[in-house]
Amino acid sequence: MENWKYLHVMRGHNGNVFDVRWGPNDRFLASCSVDNKIIIWTAKNFPEMYKTLSGKTICKTGLRWHPSSNVQATQSDNRTLRIWRTSDWGEEMKIWKPFARHHNMTHYLRCDWSPDAQYVVSTHAVNQEGPVAVICNRADKFSVKNDFVGH
After folding, report:
1. Is 11 exposed, middle or buried, given 0-12, 13-18 or 19+ CB atoms closer than 10 A?
2. Do residues 75 and 89 make contact, with C-beta atoms less than 8 angstroms apart?
3. What are the backbone dihedrals phi and psi of residue 4, each rounded to the nearest 5 degrees, phi first?
4. What is the DSSP string of 8-54?
5. Tell me: the pLDDT tens digits for 60-69?
6. For the segment 39-67, what is each residue's pLDDT rounded down to a tens digit?
């Protein structure tokens, strides 16, 4: 039998939180919300906020840390996939073309890194035939040359 108790209530978002992820080495915890904010929490000093990314175009629904922790990928219901540098939390890349033609929007979008961390795969994209998940190649400036078809 296990007995669980909460340690901290992390207050900072003004809307539903859609995703929460531990960063590599457990130094940070990131949360994203419908309130157009991504909050990076310092794990060492919970519930201290380390950094907040906010703005009209930041409505995030899914996030994933790169295994080396030098970038983070976020997917949004505004039809974008963004790559953020963790060194200064600036935007490294905004990928929108594969998502521009998708007509159905959802609040549950998720992206993820490949095990070798060279690719990020993202849902809710469209190719000529219909809905796909795109594979973005980091070594080639996150170009999209492949996708998963079938859903």
Report:
1. exposed
2. no
3. -105, 145
4. ------SS-EEEEEEPGGGSEEEEEETTSEEEEEEGGGTT-EEEEEE
5. 788 999 888 7
6. 999 988 888 999 999 876 666 788 999 88
